[in-house]
């Protein structure tokens, strides 16, 4: 089984790593967890009410633990049982999460909108860039300013204050310069308690935004235009508690579809909402995979793979979060594929690692030319970011020999029980030095 890399090589370090021996077909059914990027923002939205917010289907991820710590630091009470998370924010006593906490999770900046609407003041450190790009938050800040907040940015801290005598933000028209998911969510959370009507134009249409609107509506918010790029919010004075289930994680589902594709296997993946992944389904079908809706799930059957090309785009276009895993699949497809990454300026760091595994990829600026090869070979590799880690796991499933993958910190941020799930489908995968 250890054809590729000597076992000694893996044992030289106590670094956590995945050990994957490639070449196994997968079969069976995999359960998709709740969506990380929804759950994180729904947690931020829980700050908008005194009442209990009960979230179901919350995935067990380190990012969720980080967000929990942020809410705790603000004075919220949390009760987390399996995938059920109850949050009570009736005794918020801090409007200024620490740099240490915010720095560990970029999405925590998104709580600035709910914190401001609820407490009248929010001081949140600028999150800074991350490995995949600079990731500005200018649109979030511009939106809050348009809603009447007084904003100051000094010493790396964004201070937002409501100065109106009514202690409420005021509704307005906001035209986003780009359909930012986070900015749309931040503005939504601020606008639901504002006085009057807010219209967000060029809003993001991602399913996670729709999920946030679902929770806010369940809490008593008045929002129109769900799933479109023009969202209208009529502010209310108060929001109440709610019991709400997070949507299934479309990126995790897509990653398992690609696991089936690259290993030329048949899998059932559930729960699965096809409308959340239309662009990905189209490309998988173009590559030769057969997909069939099966109750609340989907069955994918993959055989020989053909090359396909795509450019990442905001929803409903091809999602950037599946660009890296899809590239892994295309390294084994017949012919030449082109992938262009248009959302982030530095999200092709998996390319050198895939090249080390024998993939034929030529990079030119934001575009990768991938020529399918008949075989990948195992090598020690390191994940540079969350989705790159998934890409390396997929490549290792078909590589000749045993691959050791480091950088699992990234994987654990966004994939619940990845190796357990793959093992249950028949993969030879283990975690060393957990
Ligand atoms: N942008 C700006 N100005 C802004 C905000 C964004 O120019 O003020 C640009 C960004 O630089 C980027 C693009 O807009 O080029 C998209 O950024 P967006 O704000 O939509 O992304 P986000 O809200 O920061 C969320 C997900 C990401 C996912 C993107 C795009 C969360 C917590 N994160 O980020 O998820 O890639 O939307 O779909 O919801 C991941 O899960 O691996 C991940 C990175």
TrEMBL record:
One cellular-component annotation, GO: cytoplasm
Recorded catalytic activity of this chain's protein: phosphoenolpyruvate + UDP-N-acetyl-alpha-D-glucosamine = UDP-N-acetyl-3-O-(1-carboxyvinyl)-alpha-D-glucosamine + phosphate
Molecular function GO terms recorded: UDP-N-acetylglucosamine 1-carboxyvinyltransferase activity
Example GO biological process: UDP-N-acetylgalactosamine biosynthetic process
Origin superkingdom: Eukaryota
EC identifiers of the protein: 2.5.1.7
The UniProt record lists the keyword Cell cycle: yes
Keyword Metal-binding: no
Gene3D superfamilies: Enolpyruvate transferase domain
Family, per entry: Belongs to the EPSP synthase family. MurA subfamily.
Name of the molecule in the record: UDP-N-acetylglucosamine 1-carboxyvinyltransferase
């Amino acid at each position: 089984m250890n054809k590729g890399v000597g076992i000694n090589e893996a044992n030289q370090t106590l670094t956590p790593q995945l050990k994957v021996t490639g070449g196994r077909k997968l079969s069976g059914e995999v359960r998709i967890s709740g969506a990380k990027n929804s759950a994180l923002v729904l947690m931020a939205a829980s700050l908008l009410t005194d009442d209990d917010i009960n979230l179901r289907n919350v995935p067990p991820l380190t990012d969720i633990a980080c967000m929990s710590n942020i809410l705790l630091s603000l004075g919220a009470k949390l009760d987390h049982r399996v995938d059920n998370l109850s949050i009570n924010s009736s005794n918020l006593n801090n409007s200024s999460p620490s740099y240490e906490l915010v720095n560990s999770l970029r999405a925590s900046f998104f709580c600035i909108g709910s914190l401001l609407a609820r407490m009248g003041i929010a001081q949140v450190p600028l999150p800074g860039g991350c490995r995949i790009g600079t990731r500005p938050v200018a649109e979030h800040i511009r939106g809050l300013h348009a809603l009447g907040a007084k904003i100051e940015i000094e010493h790396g801290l964004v201070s937002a204050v409501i100065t109106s005598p009514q202690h409420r933000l005021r509704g307005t028209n906001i035209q986003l310069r780009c359909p930012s998911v986070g900015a749309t969510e931040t503005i939504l959370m601020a606008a639901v308690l504002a006085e009057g009507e807010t219209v967000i134009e060029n809003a993001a249409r991602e399913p996670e935004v729709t999920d946030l609107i679902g929770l806010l509506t369940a809490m008593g918010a008045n929002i129109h235009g769900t799933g479109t790029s023009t969202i209208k919010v009529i502010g209310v004075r108060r929001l109440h508690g709610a019991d709400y289930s997070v949507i299934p994680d479309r990126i995790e589902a897509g990653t398992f579809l690609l696991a089936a594709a690259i290993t030329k296997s048949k899998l059932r993946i559930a729960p699965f909402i096809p409308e959340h992944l239309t662009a990905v389904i189209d490309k998988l079908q173009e590559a030769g995979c057969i997909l069939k809706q099966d109750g609340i799930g989907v069955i994918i059957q993959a055989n020989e793979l053909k090359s396909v090309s795509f450019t990442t785009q905001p929803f409903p276009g091809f999602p950037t979060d599946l660009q890296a895993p899809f590239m892994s699949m295309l390294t084994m497809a017949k012919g030449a594929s082109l992938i262009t990454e248009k959302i982030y300026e530095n999200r092709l760091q998996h390319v050198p690692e895939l090249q080390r595994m024998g993939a034929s990829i030529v990079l030119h600026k934001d575009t990768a030319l991938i020529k399918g090869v008949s075989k990948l070979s195992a090598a020690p590799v390191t994940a540079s970011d969350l989705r790159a880690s998934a890409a390396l796991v997929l490549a290792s499933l078909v590589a000749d020999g045993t691959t050791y993958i480091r950088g699992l910190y990234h994987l654990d941020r966004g994939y619940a029980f990845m190796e357990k799930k793959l093992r249950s489908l028949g993969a030879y995968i283990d975690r060393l030095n957990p």
